[in-house]
Write a structure and sequence with these properties.
Layout lengths: L2 H7 L2 H11 L17 H16 L3 E4 L6 H5 L27 E3 L6 E4 L8 H4 L4 H10 L7
Parallel strand pairs: 1-3
Antiparallel strand pairs: 2-3
Helix pairs in contact: 1-2
């Protein structure tokens, strides 16, 4: 039996300790589909919630979907200005404050970066090496997440 299977069978805090030893941090999961309504937001939110609630992992969910449904799905008011959304992370040489919103609890166990409805527009698609922009933001100043 592999280490993860053993960790998942344990109970309570013993499980959390075993899982945190087995899972390489930070663990990054991407949920992708070109099809609308395929459950990307539902799956991402539920995975984030389960990682926090059952394994004690501090979780970050970044909404890159142009429908920006993550904010609504998690019960928060969608931000009205770009500084409070994922748009911030795509700015040239981002070194600012992460636009994090704590959901499900107040201690920051699960945080989201709300989406921005024009993210897929010319502002991002015209940028050279746009696929590396988010990676740069993640490497520079990301708060501590599992």
């Amino acid at each position: 039996m592999n280490q993860l299977a053993v960790a998942l069978k344990a109970n309570g805090s013993a499980r959390n300790k075993l899982v945190s030893k087995v899972i390489r941090k930070p663990l990054v999961l991407s949920v992708l589909s070109l099809e609308g309504g395929s459950g990307k937001t539902s799956l991402s939110t539920n995975l984030g919630y389960l990682a926090w609630r059952f394994f004690g992992l501090k979780t970050l969910i970044i909404d890159l979907d142009q429908n920006c449904s993550l904010a609504n799905f998690t019960g928060i008011e969608p931000p009205s200005h770009t500084e409070s959304t994922v748009y911030t992370l795509f700015q040239e040489n981002f070194e600012g404050e992460w636009p994090l919103v704590s959901v499900f609890d107040s201690d920051g166990g699960v945080c989201i970066v709300p989406g921005y409805d024009s993210l897929s527009g010319e502002m991002i698609s015209a940028r050279i090496s746009r696929e590396l922009i988010l990676l740069g933001a993640l490497r520079n100043g990301l708060p501590d997440f599992d």
